[in-house]
From TrEMBL:
It holds the Pfam family TauD. This is TauD/TfdA family dioxygenase. Keywords: Antibiotic biosynthesis, Dioxygenase, Oxidoreductase. The keyword Oxidoreductase applies. It comes from the Bacteria. Residues 54-305 form the TauD/TfdA-like domain.
C-alpha cells in the first residue's frame, strides 16, 4: 500500500462533487449481517468472548465491510456506509451486530477511564471543557480533533432533532496550506505538544503524553490535534513544559483554518449510517445539537475505535503516545483503569487472527 500515492488531500468542494466516499450496503450484505447476528446471539457469549467465527459473515457482507474500512486508508481517507437496518433490532442487538462486524476488520481499543470497548455517543448531561471532560456524553459542539486509533467508527441509531452535524477536514490539505501561507510555523508543528489523557490513562502510566502535531514515517504523513486536551495539560499539570509562542500561534491558526468553509465539509449522519474516518489524515468535529424530549428518540450513536492490519507506520516521535508505531500494529486507545483478563484475551486473539503486531497482551 502506498499511502502517499493513494491518500489524497481534498477541499470541501472536492467531496461535494465526487461522492465516491458514500457506499451502500447491498441487500445480500444486509442479509449476511443479519444471519451472522442471529448466529452470534445463539452462542450467548458476551462481546469480548465472540470470535469472527461466532459472527460468520458470508462473502457479500464480509467484502463490503472490509472494503469500507480499506477505503479509509486511501483516497479521501473516510467513508460513509449506509443502509444498516437498525430499526429491525433492539439496542443490544445493534451493539452485537456492530461489534461483530468489527471482529472482521481489526482490534477494538478501549476508549476511556472505565476501559469501555464501545461507547454510546449520547447526551447524558456531561460537561465538555472541564478537567476530565469528554465530548461524547454532552450535546456540545466540539473542537476539531482526532481520536486515539487508526479508524474511528460511528453508527447512528437515532439522529438529533436538530444539529449534531459532522464536520471533517483533510489534515493533508491543512498542512499544504500552512506550508504555502505560513511556512514560518511549519517547524512548530513538529515540536512536542503535551496532551492530557483526561484521567483515562492506565494506573501505571502518566496522564499526559508528548506528541508533535505532524510527522512522517517512510513517506506516510500523520497529523494529530486536540486543543482541549493540550490546554488541559497546560492547566492541570505543573511539570508540563509551557507552550512556546510559535506553538500557541500554530494552534490559533489551526483553530481558524480547520473550520474554514474551503476546507471543512459538513456531513449529516443518518439513521443506519456508519461513518469511518482515518485519524491520521482527517480531523473531525461536530456542531452542538438539540434533542427530542422522548428518551427513545434522543440522538444516539455507537462508537468504536479500531486499529486495523492495513494501517500506516507512524512517526518515531509518536511512540510515547501510541506505544507501537509499526504499520499494522495494535496501538492507541485510552487504556483506562478497567482492563480485564477477558479484554486481554480478546486483544491477543484478534491480533493473532489479523496477523497484527501486538506488544500489549503478548
Amino acid at each position: 500500500m502506498n499511502q502517499i500515492a493513494q491518500c489524497r488531500s481534498w477541499l470541501s468542494r472536492d467531496v461535494e462533487r465526487d461522492t465516491s466516499w458514500v457506499r451502500f450496503l447491498s441487500d445480500a450484505a444486509i442479509e449476511d449481517i443479519d444471519s451472522a447476528l442471529q448466529h452470534a446471539k445463539s452462542t450467548s457469549k458476551p462481546l469480548l468472548s465472540l470470535t469472527p467465527n461466532d459472527f460468520p459473515l458470508a462473502q457479500a457482507g464480509l467484502e463490503e465491510i472490509q472494503a469500507a474500512y480499506a477505503s479509509t486508508q486511501q483516497g479521501w481517507g473516510f467513508c460513509l456506509l449506509k443502509g444498516f437496518p437498525v430499526e429491525r433490532y433492539s439496542v443490544d442487538e445493534i451493539k452485537t451486530l456492530y461489534w461483530g462486524i468489527g471482529l472482521h476488520v481489526g482490534v477494538a481499543r478501549t476508549q476511556n477511564k472505565n476501559s469501555d470497548i464501545m461507547t454510546s455517543v449520547k447526551d447524558t448531561g456531561g460537561q465538555y471543557k472541564v478537567n476530565g471532560g469528554r465530548g461524547y456524553n454532552t450535546n456540545a459542539g466540539l473542537d476539531f480533533h482526532v481520536d486515539f486509533c487508526d479508524v474511528v467508527s460511528l453508527l447512528c441509531i437515532h439522529p438529533a432533532k436538530s444539529g449534531g452535524t459532522s464536520l471533517i477536514t483533510s489534515s493533508l490539505a491543512i498542512y499544504e496550506e500552512l506550508k504555502r501561507t505560513r511556512p514560518d510555523l511549519e517547524a512548530a508543528l513538529q515540536k512536542p505538544f503535551y496532551f492530557s489523557l483526561q484521567g483515562a490513562g492506565a494506573n501505571d502510566e502518566p496522564n499526559i503524553y508528548p506528541c508533535p502535531l505532524y510527522g512522517e514515517s517512510q513517506g506516510y504523513p500523520a497529523f494529530r490535534t486536540n486543543r482541549k486536551n493540550i490546554t488541559a495539560a497546560q492547566e492541570y499539570f505543573d511539570d508540563v513544559p509551557r507552550l512556546e509562542d510559535d506553538q500557541i500561534e500554530v494552534l490559533d491558526w489551526l483553530d481558524e483554518m480547520l473550520k474554514e468553509p474551503r476546507f471543512c465539509f459538513s456531513m449529516n449522519i443518518e439513521k443506519g449510517d456508519i461513518q469511518l474516518l482515518n485519524n491520521y489524515t482527517v480531523v473531525h468535529s461536530r456542531t452542538d445539537f438539540e434533542d427530542y424530549e422522548e428518551e427513545f428518540r434522543k440522538r444516539h450513536l455507537l462508537r468504536l475505535w479500531m486499529t486495523i492490519p492495513g494501517s500506516q507506520p507512524l512517526p518515531d516521535t509518536w511512540r510515547m503516545a501510541f506505544k507501537d508505531i509499526r504499520a499494522g500494529a495494535v496501538r492507541g486507545g485510552n487504556r483506562g483503569k478497567g482492563i480485564t483478563d477477558d479484554f486481554l484475551a480478546y486483544e491477543r486473539r484478534q491480533a493473532n487472527y489479523h496477523h497484527m503486531h501486538n506488544i500489549f497482551s503478548g
